[in-house]
Structure formats: C-alpha cells, structure tokens
Design a protein that fits this description.
There is one protein chain. The protein has eight helices and no strands. The chain is an all-alpha fold.
C-alpha cells in the first residue's frame, strides 16, 4: 500500500492549459506495480467514455450529457437538425453555447477542456490517496492526450490547403 501512496503523491499536477508530463503508456507502467490488478485493468481499458469504476460512473453521467449537448450545439451552428434527448441539461446547454460561440475552434476546445478538468476536480473532491483520485488523474491524462493532437500550425496548413483547393475549383468553374 505504501507504493500506492508514493505513486499518487509523486504524480505531477495536471493542468488543462499545461502539457502532458508523460504518455498514458508511461502512466500505466508507473501504476503496474503500485495498484491492485483490478484497478490496473480499469486503467488499462479506460477511455473518456468508460462507464464503470470509482469516479468513472459519475464522470460518465456528465460526459454523456456533455458530448450530446456539444453535438447539438455544433449542429445548431451548422444549421442542421438537433436530436431531442431525455438527458437535456439546460444549464449545460447554455454553458456550452457560451463557450463555443464566437470563439475560434481551438480556443473553444481549450475552454471546454478547462471545464472538463474543473468537473473532474469537483468529482474527486477530498479524495487524495485512493482509486477515485487515481481515476481522476487518469481521466485528466486522457483529456490531455486528446488535446495533444490539436496542432495549430498543422490546422493552419490544412486550412490553407482547403482554401487553395477551393480557389482552384472556382477558377476551373469560371473557365468552363
């Protein structure tokens, strides 16, 4: 059990606006000898959409509604039909709308990530050296892993490629 306390106390703090201190695979390696086999299996199979485990079931309720509302807001923004849901949360709908409207996509994603981190912190509460705290840390690391794939330079390059292709298409259409 001492190694479990050491593991949790030695993990670097994760911040929504920070970098990943290490990969999820490295995190799993750190956990392998410090946690029970059942806990390790949960960590190994963990996704942001997982539904079972300490903290995970509570997170899942939030994340399911969060994802659906995010999809609805994006559909509204694109003028598409929105699916009705029995899990509609008006407070969340207003908060997501406020976060994503009027911001560039990267800034909106960063704001949403900060909200997800805050939610995990609230769900962890006063748990420091148990599976709830460990699962919360793992979820945050998974969120940072997803953020890590956002690359502004690559996004701009892709935007320029798309714009150039559209320009070429327009020029070809004008010549016909």
């Amino acid at each position: 059990m001492a190694s479990y306390y050491y593991l949790l106390s030695s993990l670097p703090m994760l911040k929504a606006d920070g970098e990943m201190p290490f990969s999820y695979a490295t995190f799993l390696d750190m956990c392998k000898s410090a946690v029970r086999d059942a806990t390790y299996q949960m960590l190994e199979n963990l996704t942001l959409s997982s539904t079972q485990g300490p903290l995970i079931s509570e997170w899942s309720k939030f994340y399911t509604v969060f994802e659906q509302e995010l999809i609805n807001q994006r559909h509204l923004r694109l003028g598409r039909a929105v699916q009705s849901s029995d899990q509609k949360d008006e407070t969340m709908a207003k908060a997501i709308a406020a976060v994503i409207h009027g911001k560039n996509p990267l800034e909106a994603e960063k704001a949403l990530l900060a909200w997800e981190f805050q939610t995990i912190d609230e769900q962890i509460g006063t748990h420091y050296f148990d599976d709830v705290a460990l699962m919360g840390y793992a979820l945050k690391l998974k969120l940072l892993e997803r953020k890590h794939v956002f690359d502004q330079a690559r996004g701009k390059k892709e935007l320029h490629r798309i714009v150039h292709a559209l320009e070429q298409h327009i020029m070809t259409a004008k010549q016909e």
